[in-house]
Amino acid sequence: MTTNWKSDDKKSANQKPNTQPAKDADPKIISGTMLSSWSRQQKLAMIACFLILGVLVVVSACSKESSKPALVGVSSPAANSAAPDITQNAATSPAAMAAAAPVKKSARKRPANVTFTDTNAGVSFLYPRKFSVISGDKAQVQLAAVGDVPMNFAESGGSTIATVVLPADSYPRTDFESAFFTVNINRSVSEQECGHFAFVDTRNADGEPVDAEKVKIGAADMETTSSFAASADAQAEAQYYHSYENGACYEYVLGLGTEGSATENGVEHVDRDQVFARLEKILATVRIDSATIDPAKVNDAKIDEAKIDPASPKPVPESEATGMNGGKE
To answer: pLDDT tens for residues 10-57?
Structure first.
């Protein structure tokens, strides 16, 4: 029995080594199968992770690019809000304020008077800007009581250079109708004949002609006379001045016309002395330039520098004021 027991023990001992490997082999097979199965899952998981990571990278990149304008737009107000502070600080400095202050251009004040010049006749004069000037063949004027105002040379052959006309509303609520200053020239008369007139003043009580008077206007010695005409409701007066210079006789005519019955409807007589005083101020500015006279062109009355349409009078080149304005301009 002992032997049998031992043999049994041996067998059992022998069997244990045999059975143990079997028991050990089964876990290895299971664990190998599990390892193989886990590796496959791990691969799938890793692939899935890579895919998800790739998607996240792409989404992140797109979101960053799309967010850049938004970031710029958001950051711009901050930059802009800082800029006014800098500008404001710079603008408040005295130097910046002086530099930013707009430069005011002083308005150019137009002279009260302008200059008329006829280079052919060598004559120039000043007249108020608000008066109108007519030159050439259209410079012949009229007065209500006499019509065309004639030249008063002792011999024919004269021509009109220019006429200055006062505005019709120069003396409101008076019987003033018109007033003018005219320059004529005649190279057909001698110096002696220039001192005579075709007709002279006939205003004396006896109706006898009044001899011409010698007067001094500015620096020029002149002879003067006047004429007067009247109708039932109009009056005309003209004053003539002659001077001989540069081989020509210059005639200056100062005319005044009134129309209507004074004292009716509040209308008064115009101050005739005041009107002629304004015209005499123009006469006092007359200048004769001997260097520019062209005898061949004087009687043609061609104006180079002051050809003005009588329907729309325009002033000619400007000059400084000489204080000849008076009454309403």
So the answer is: 444 444 444 444 445 555 555 555 555 556 777 777 788 888 888 887
In this structure, the number of other CB atoms found within 10 A of the CB of residue 308 comes to 20
Q: What is the CB neighbour count within 10 angstroms for residue 224?
A: 18
Domain residues of the chain, as ranges?
Answer: 2-100, 113-298
The residue ranges of DSSP E strands in the chain, in sequence order, are 113-118, 123-128, 132-135, 142-143, 147-148, 159-165, 176-186, 213-217, 220-230, 234-245, 248-259, 287-288
CATH of 113-298, one of 3.40.1000.10, 1.10.3210.10, 3.40.50.2300, 3.30.470.20: 3.40.1000.10
Q: Between these two residues, 36 and 279, which has the higher pLDDT value? A: 279
Contact of 178 with 254, CB cutoff 8 Å: no
Which of 69-73, 156-160, 272-276 comes out lowest in average pLDDT?
Answer: 69-73
Whose CA is closest to 181, among 307, 311, 318, 283?
283
Cβ count near 318 (within 10 Å): 13
